[in-house]
Amino acid sequence: MAEPPGGVGDPAKVNWLGPGELSSLTTRELQQNLRLEKRRERPAQLLFEIPSSRIVHQSLGKHVVHDVVVMRSGSFDSRRVSVDRRYSDFRQLHHKLQEEFQEELEEVQLPPKLLSGNFRPDSMSERRLALQDYLSQLYAMCCIRHSPLFAEFFTTQEQRKAHVLLRAGQFKAALELLQAVLDVQEKLLPWQKPTLLVPTLSALVVCYRDLDQPEEAICIANRALPIVRRYGLRAYRAALLELMVDLGYQLGRPVAQLQEELTVLRDSERGEVMQRSLKEVVIRNFI
After folding, report:
1. Residue at 3 is within a domain
2. Residue 1 lies in a domain
3. Has residue 266 been placed in a domain?
4. For the whole model, what pTM was predicted?
5. pLDDT per residue over 207-244, tens digit each?
6. What is the C-alpha separation between 114 and 119, in angstroms, rounded?
7. Checking CA distances to 38, which of 86, 184, 261, 264 falls within 20 to 30 Å?
């Protein structure tokens, strides 16, 4: 009889073990198998936490900023990803969602604006819990968690800041922001289209290329290109291919297939869009 696949610690083997074999496993091995089996069956979920808030002082006044942490359950999530959001950001999200999902949101209430006492520690603590619960209620609704509006709440501000830095030639600072955006988007990805990643991946490619890190640039480009092909993102496809051909020559890698794909694409779809560089495509997204 063929040896069954898997080994001790592999959840696939649990189904192959007979009573005699099970008795030979140690308690630790049985517990490990059980944990792996449970982890495999547990669907990933998004969790939201607002562990802290801070008061930001500006020349014309002050406001409270909340640290919104996004986590994935159902599997070990070692990356702590957070974004700073004001109450006005939550209010703007709610208004946008109401325009599209008015009936679905009838039972979901945004915590009301505080008219006084905003900066008291007890008020800030209550507000954190209320906003945390609000995000959880939104996520519990299928139509909301699959909506691009929900994803944009966690990423758009940072994307805009990164693109300002990119246009200013501050590629290292832009890179850090874009990587944080990508971390959030990857947590949201099970409920969003993969196209969500393309603008961020493309901006990362531009930053790595202009920081003279071609290996990193082509690695990220290889992540973006299959999504661009699959979903027919024409402007990105031509620009990505052109940059990958240039990087391929620089790194001494074969580029014939990429070059042929680019030539066929440009011959079939002429126009200004086909002639833009990847940096131009990236920048135009956030002008």
Report:
1. no
2. no
3. yes
4. 0.80
5. 999 999 999 999 999 999 999 999 999 889 999 999 99
6. 10
7. 184
